[in-house]
Amino acid sequence: MLRIHFFFVVIVGVVWGICCFSCKKSSSPAPENSGGGNPGNELDTVYQPVDPPVAATIGWFMNSWQPKAYTAPTQYRDTLMPAGKATVTVQVDMNQVITKVSPYVFGNNANTWMGQMVTEPALLQYITDLAPHIIRGPGGSISDLYFWNQSSAPPPDVPDSLYDGNGHKTPAGYWFGMNTQSWTLSIDHYYQMLQQTHSEGILTVNYAYARYGTGPHPVQTAAHLAADWVRYDHGRTRYWEIGNESNGTWEASYQIDTTTNQDGQPAIITGQLYGQHFNIFADSMRAAAREIGATIYIGAQLLDAPPASWQTATDKGWNAGVLTTAGQKADFFIVHDYFTPYQKNSTAAEIIDSGLSVPGRIMQYLNQQFAQYGIPPKPVTLTEWNIFATGSMQMVSYLAGLQAAIVLGELIKNQFGEASRWDLANGWDNGNDMGMFNIGDEPGAPKWNPRPAFYLMTYFQRYFGDRMVASTVQGSSDVLCYASSFSQGPAAGLVLINTGNTPQTVQILLNHFAPASRYYWFTCTGGNDNGEFSRKVYINGYGPAGVSGGPANYNQILPYSAMASPQIQVTLPARAVVFLQVPARHG
Questions:
Q1: Which of 49, 280, 380, 412 gets the highest tally of CB atoms within 10 A of its CB?
Q2: Helices then strands (H, E): number in the chain?
Q3: Which pTM value belongs to this model?
Q4: In angstroms, rounded to a whole number, what is the distance separating the alpha carbons of residues 418 and 363?
Q5: What are the pLDDT digits (tens) for 186-232?
Q6: Is the Cβ–Cβ distance between 4 and 453 less than 8 Å?
């Protein structure tokens, strides 16, 4: 597989039960009264949402928040409201704000093996439509083999070989930011790609160089290289990570040859050592930022779950070491999670459950860790996420897109500051491909053909508002709801997900909100190919022309629309995602 590197995440912990306002169960009270079917009620017209304080786990990631506008479409496919009694009732309290939505939870990852990007207009248009807001570079584990200022050879103080995950020395395989060949991504083209897609960057500096460097002062040398990158960047990037998964046995930072090290470092990394090095990097990078008049934020790595008994001593002491040595200096904390067990042929139900459970587990565990080690909660970023499920083309399936929609809802609900899905493009590997777009090796599909996750995530960020509001679901544990409001309009934006195999008829009751005469929706479903893991997505009946992906005319598809009187009701097919918008009544 062309993924270049591997990740190993163990998902354990207790499901977080605090403030489960949306989806299957909720601790929020039922609305006092309901709009939707009773637009004349006085309570419905009192739309006065009150924002709670910004969660510390979002923090300054909310500084870029902007009110979001919704404009009702002038063209639509006029449709009768589904007949019959609803099997599910969704109640939404438009005044009960859970959180403003961080614009950075929709992020993604670029990498240095996907080509120069700016030479690919189709890909750039897809990314622009996806609107991830933030794109991480230069690419996972290769960040610790990456010399941003070199074009073809590393500096002289690095070894030719490094330890792999099995403790064997293998050729290092360094990467270079000034390499302008067509097959790779240069740092300057990364910056251009961000500009052309209206995205911000988050960059991972080469921390491992501080470990495997053979010079007399490897930590200071590596920190100086990172600081020089900040100077070269000249304020284009605000968010910086020190290293990638540095605790992992697969990482270049994990084990070094002590016979070539000159500053007395141990062979195996610890969280305490990483924390000490983090402080040196942070001091150098912040000094560089002050020189150029830039504001930067620097993140430190944590583990997002309690280590299992079989994990390494490094893992078992990682969070304690990092938090006690660098917890005060870090601006934010970084975790990665791939939701399902490593290389297991996971079922659809297991993948869906992971989307529902993992974000809450992560946040609960990190808050416990902050309290245990006396660190005030700070912004939390999930800079890599996806599924590890393999064997049935799960990664490229519609089901992966449905899970991605669930994950976005749960990340917002659990108040993450930032999240970047892994990744924009990867390698086919018989369908075990985490890439959102076909890099060019998927049989029968055009280059850059989007996978279903692209369509589900694009529609989510378009039709979900700027505030998440409280909702409850009654009638089926299979139906999920993530509810939102648009500040400008105003309007309600709901993501309704049927995780089961039985179609449902859903009635929506809006409290403290007077709906307009019409409501609008898009229905996304999978195809009938490949069992549970269809490689296709259909939007309002439109699907792909080829073997995989979705409709080429996704930007031109008209929403369904029905009259909102006497009530708001929609059909939710099996394993479907519905993006529903209800404008407010004016006058």
A1: 380
A2: 9, 23
A3: 0.92
A4: 13
A5: 999 999 999 999 999 999 999 999 999 999 999 999 999 999 999 99
A6: no
